[in-house]
Task: structure prediction
Amino acid sequence: MKRLIVAAVTLGALAGLDLLLPRFLNPYFMRILMLCGISIVLAVSLNLINGFTGQFSIGHAGFMAIGAYSSAMFSMHIGVGWVSALEALGAPQGLAQAAALVVALLLGGLAAAVAGYFVGLPSLRLRGDYLAIVTLGFGEIIRVIITNVDAVGAARGLPGIPQWANFFWVAAAVIAVVGVSLRIANSSHGRALFAIRDDEVAAEALGVDTTRYKVLAFVIGSFFAGIAGGLFAHYNAYLHPNSFTFLKSIEIIAMVVLGGLGSISGSILAAVFLTVLPEALRSAQELRMVIYSLMIIVLMITRPGGLMGSREIDVRRWFGRRARPA
Amino acid sequence: MNPDVLLHLDHVTMQFGGLKAVANLDLEVGRGELVGLIGPNGAGKTTVFNLITGVYTPTNGRVMFEGRAIQGMKPHVIAHRGITRTFQNIRLFASRTCRDNVLIAAHQHCEAGLLDAVLATARFERDEQAMRKRADELLALLGLSEWADVRAAELPYGQQRRLEIARALAGRPRLLLLDEPAAGLNPQESDQLMHLIEEIRRKFEVTILLIEHDMRVVMGICRRIAVLDYGEKIAEGTPGQIRSDPKVIEAYLGEEVPAAGGNA
Amino acid sequence: MTEFLQQLVNGITWGSVYALIALGYTMVYGILRLINFAHGDVYMLGAFFGYFTARFIGAANNPNPMKAIIVLLSAMIACGLVGIVIERFAYKPVRRSSRLSALITAIGVSLLLENGGILLFGADPKFFPQIIRAREFNLIHGVTISNQQLIILAVSLILMFALRFIVLHTRTGKAMQAVSYNPTAAALMGISVDRIITFTFMLGSMLAAAAGVLVALQNPKIEPLMGIMPGLKAFVAAVLGGIGNIPGAVVGGLVMGIAEVLVVGYISPTYRDAIAFVLLIVILLVRPAGILGRNVAEKV
Result:
């Protein structure tokens, strides 16, 4: 019962923020806020694969692209029809759009998850570096395919996606991915993932089905990447394959590594930081990338554990309560 | 099949290219026994463990556990069947606490699924609490209670060895494989280990197969010993028989086989 | 038939280029188990160093072989130095860290070289001066080969044989082999592992630089991001042949070059880049150790 109340209050707060924020923030800052949210979903979902389970996945943008394009195609060809039908039945526009968006996002996430399954499964026989290259190759193949399929706009891009995503949904997605990650981390399944990261041979010998768990990490991680892609599509209203290059994958990896592999709070902080930073440096465009790459190098040399290492911010400690034993 | 024979290695051969790491090995371990597996370095002892636990699939022969063939099964399936092990080179989950290391090994016995975990159902909470309780009991038995929240990488060496054993026990095995548990321990610690292994065998009613170089430990607690050399079994018997077997002495060539006090 | 043979000639030429780049990847991986993501960008730097040298000495004014050789050598030496600097400042500090950290560092260096190149050279393409007068020769069946292609093949062969000689017949080369098998044992034998690693990076970078200059002979348009795709493809070539295996890099490079040219010729140019990844997926699923590679199992 208590949990239902917490959920209701949270949703109410989000809806309230959704209405109020545009009044206080100008569109530029709103955009940054939304992009931060999407980045958080991407970073935390990749953290499941790279951080928790220690797998080298460097093609996350590919999963995002699958989610983005499949949800966009659904909305543009089927979703709008549903919205009109619902409105004709008397439903308010906002609700109809919200319903269509949820379906679109779930479809995008599902499509990405299926891809995650097929990428994860055969790659599992491969050692770390090889897995990295396969995931890289996968990301590139997806981009090449998209660039060559006319129906999704190919190299011209895909305009005209209904702009149904707003703060409420981005925030809801953030809460969902963070919540799921936290719950997994504090469960036997999360411990199994960390065990695989630390020593796969020992984990297997002690009864952990490593294959199953590695694939699971991929599927869940790619599902949320697909959701992030869907949100991006329905916020930006326009998709172009150049948004999903290897560079995008690197940006997400940088967030996870900067935050500390395995740390959810680290991923959140780093995602925000690395989304805001390029905007702050926007004036010096070429210099920005040089600074970015130098930052990555220096970070890896001086503090490979990232900001948080693999620890989490313990919010309870801030409120003076005794932290729960590990 | 004889119900008293828990493990039966039936003409097991492991060949890597041109090298026969294990050659035509025939070994039986009875229920409740404490059997030692000794031999010079490179004799193939750890390979035998790897064959039993499914890390390798034998080139020839069968590995029978509780009457059923298990060769070719994946290691985690074999662990579920009731065989767990420690490792010669410590393979702890370094970034996890002691308690977590033990909890991970208990994973196979958890009932709550992934959905339960995500939704934090009552079943999940009950499960977690029960597992924690058992883990803490196990840690207490092995004298690791004060280290429960410490990261495994920060443990002193002796404690790390104990944690390896605690972890193996968390899987509630019927057959426990210990790979050189006394390596690097001083005589006093080895004594403690010997008592601990005996206690484990009694308390958990578990069969133990032990690889060890420390002859004091082997002769002290093992009722039966098998000797490997170049992948072949060259002798098998009680400690007294092994100690005076000329083939064994020759294999070790110059290594002292001390007269152990107090044959168990 | 003519067309097929022509494609073959083109494919082998391209393949030699890929092979030169792939050798650098494979040597570094063999010694450090590191995928040097920045290697493709060293290839780019080779083309640019060659470009600046060629303009400086006016190699296009009166093209003669001496000037061309100076262009090639200066690019190789400059990139050899770049390789040494990268290793010393970016890779050596993370040698003890996790593999993922090293991978991320390599990606960082790659980005630095690319964006530094954009900053320094400008993003618009430059045109490599014609330092060799172009001529075509007829082979059999109406198949032609340009003298640029011949030069690419000849120089590649010379460099590969030189590398083979170094690795097999010099003390440093044997030390390289030792370090790739077992760095600890090599160190115990008195080999300075640090120096060997530096030497390996230098050699690999020099080969990549040569590839950059050779390609620029035939495709004069150069720009700071030109190393990305060839770098990736050369890496796939190295994996194809068996990463860590030097003859494998050559085999892989040739296979990659021929496959790419055939796909472009007989299927469609749009899939030119995709074929590399398809080959990658196939080899990793079917034979991860590569054509000439051997599987090293982890000791439990």
